[in-house]
């Protein structure tokens, strides 16, 4: 048995926008947490590519910025691409490089912290 549905990106995008506040309130997630976990990146992607909404590169840039500032690596990467290619902002390769570098440093620091935790756990016997 197959269920017939039609693809409606605009409706999906609008439902996504409407459901976000309810989801955030119901699980008491802070705005920072949403950006950290990529909500801004998803919205930025939809605006950049016109998925379910009108293409708006400036809005895409703003959502990527919020996500990047929240610490989301994909948001940081997308923001770097915006600066590198001039998507929704003035082309600025220095800023692009800074965002790309931020991702690398964060990954290296997190890896180092994980290794330190493992060493402490090993030596403490737990």
Describe this structure in words.
InterPro entries: Mitotic_Regulator, Sel1-like, TPR-like_helical_dom_sf. The chain has helices at 9-26, 31-36, 39-49, 57-69, 73-85, 93-124. With 126 residues, it is mainly alpha-helical. α4 (57-69) packs across α5. The longest helix has 32 residues, at 93-124. The model is unreliable at 23-35 (pLDDT under 50).
The CATH homologous superfamily is termed Tetratricopeptide repeat domain
Form type:
flat
Examine the secondary-structure arrangement and name the CATH architecture: Alpha Horseshoe
Largest sheet: number of strands, sense, barrel closure: none
Mean pLDDT: 78
Q: How big is the Rg?
A: 19 Å
Separation of the first and last Cα atoms: 53 Å
């Amino acid at each position: 048995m197959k269920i017939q549905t039609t693809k409606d990106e605009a409706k999906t995008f609008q439902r996504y926008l409407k459901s976000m506040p309810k989801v955030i309130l119901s699980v008491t997630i802070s705005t920072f947490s949403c950006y950290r976990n990529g909500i801004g990146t998803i919205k930025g992607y939809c605006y950049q590519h016109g998925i379910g909404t009108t293409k708006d590169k400036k809005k895409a840039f703003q959502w990527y910025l919020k996500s990047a500032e929240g610490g989301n690596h994909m948001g940081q990467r997308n923001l770097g691409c915006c600066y590198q290619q001039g998507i929704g902002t003035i082309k600025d390769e220095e800023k692009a490089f800074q965002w790309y570098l931020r991702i690398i440093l964060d990954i290296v620091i997190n890896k180092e912290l994980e290794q330190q935790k493992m060493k402490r756990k090993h030596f403490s016997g737990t």
